[in-house]
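User: Show me a protein chain along with its predicted structure.
Assistant: Here is one chain, sequence first, then structure tokens.
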Amino acid sequence: MMKRHLFPTILLVSALGCLVSGVAVSAGDLRASPEIAGCDYMFTGPVEEGDAQRIEEMIPAKYDGSRLCFDSPGGNFVEGLRMFHTIWNKDSVATYVRSGDGCHSACAIAFLGGSVVVGTGAIRSRNAVIEPGARLGFHAPRLVLDEGSDHSSKEVEDAYAWALQSASHLFDLTQIAEHGARGMTSFLFSRTLATPPEAMYEIDTIGKASLSQIDVALVPVPEITWGSMRHVCDTGYVMVDDRFAWIDSAEKAFSVFSDQGSDGSGNPIALADRVWSWTADSFSYFVIRGYPAPHVNEGFCMVSMSHYAWDRENALPLEQKDPTSAFQVTFWNDAHVPLDRSLASYAETNTRADHILSVAWYALWSPEQPLHPHAVRGGHTEGPARRT
């Protein structure tokens, strides 16, 4: 089988040491783990050179896939990139971090390779999942030079070129896209490079997980309300609007939204006056108007929900719910629609679609919702969405 997105060969600059994520390098451990529920394989300890090859040799390609769990402080950054490509190219290796375990820096890069390929059309979907209470952290790579010794200008120039090359390889992950599955989102890439090696960008809220396209398991299904549907639309809007790709925090990205929208001409529309839902062909559709759009246009968001998928997820116990389930969200812009025109008629007959994307169902929760054990519970207090 032809491999895709093969990681390019990197020449080591031995005089300058190695590019690592700031932890002492010692042997990591990869083993089959039948005694750990939900983990076919377990990787523990620091990431070191040769770990990608161990994954290649130990984890067979299987039609029904395997799950690789991580508990690692990180290690060799370059090897973390190699591990990403090895896992991604296995076609059906899902990655997972359990509550109480951690996966940082080089480990977190490897974790992003989790995906599965299904069907004769080899359709890929992301399958990189954390539990509430898992610690998943990213930061920029660190270039380690020998301490206590002088370095020539040539060595410093080589070190600078090495750092730029490493950032380039991270950027390459954002360019990997198959059937909507992306190696790394632009949002996560920018946050990773902006976080110094002595710090850590933790995926610790629903909003951060959504914008990083990292799925979250063991999250209860909240009640469907207009408030929760607005969270889904807000998340999708941030994902498709390039202005948010390089914003310096998820919190700032979501802070632009409120219960008040605009009709495109500067007239405010309260949330209660800009929503409509209906049911057709075993699907429910939820439309929210009033998102920002160029000129005098107005932005619309429509969330499509399969009754079969929704009822199935609600019926399953918490540990069996599919963390990769998602809504289809459609965005479009249109000329100003007067407030006295029926939104119901307009929404149900619309055929425009400027953007169509998948948004994880857990985005129903507030993006500020923290991801730690027992934090995600209960429901929303807003009134239920209208269903006709």
